[in-house]
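Re: that chain you flagged

S.,

Sorry for the slow reply, it's been a week of failed gels. I finally had a moment to sit down with the sequence you sent. For the record, here it is as I used it:
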Amino acid sequence: MHHVHVNSQPLSSEQLSQLEAIAREAGATVMSAYQSDEQGVIYKADNSPVTTADLASHRMICDRLASAFADIPVMSEEAADIPYTIRQNWSCYWLIDPLDGTKEFINRNGEFTVNIALIDHGRAVAGVVYAPVPDKCYIGQLGQGAWLIHQGHRQRLPISLEKRAVPVVVGSRSHPTIELAGYLDKLGEYRMLSVGSSLKFCMLAEGVADLYPRLGPTSEWDTAAAQAVLESAGGSVVDYVSGEPLRYNSKESLLNSWFIAIAPGINPGME
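Prediction finished late last night. Pasting the structure tokens below so you have them in one place:
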């Protein structure tokens, strides 16, 4: 089994552009639902909300990926019941969250994203995160770099590497935990920003925030695309206990371990 070296390029620049186009098209689908009065919210078995926009985005991304990359299997949050016995044989696959931040979507605060990641031998090697409301598209590939495309303007990430005297910590709007409170106590002085969805990683990649400690549950599709962007920008996403980069498709469960995401240029030993 070959392992991807960070300097090998699974995707050409044309393919990365194709990925961006697919995410933007899905984002346009999500926006037409966002702007209509009928959001079509239904509740899944675990009581989490899903909307017609999640499902429309899911179908569109799956269709587009199947026609552009016929030989690469796809796993989506909306079709994640693929047995481990099957997916453990996937050396390479797409991992998508067609609408991350469903609660943000329902609450209409604009902080939701379309996420598409390429996983190769357990690493998130390329990803695109598109936030339709601010029209911000983050894209990255390990070894090649990461970019923000905003209103036609393309900037390499990180945009800012200024050292802040007081670190900016980003956290979830909807999932604070006791454990996180304990971690933050040890941090000393910090400024907290609450942000929805995978945009937390993107703020680290931009350089406008420093740390995203997630001491609570997330699923693999919540983090993969944004981890690829952040690592491609020079940041890291590491297991809270082992300090190793977060990996994918290595176990039966699709839940991630607790992790800390760290902006480029920040020394992880801030503990």
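What I noticed first: Confidence is low (pLDDT under 50) at residues 1-7.

Talk soon,
D.
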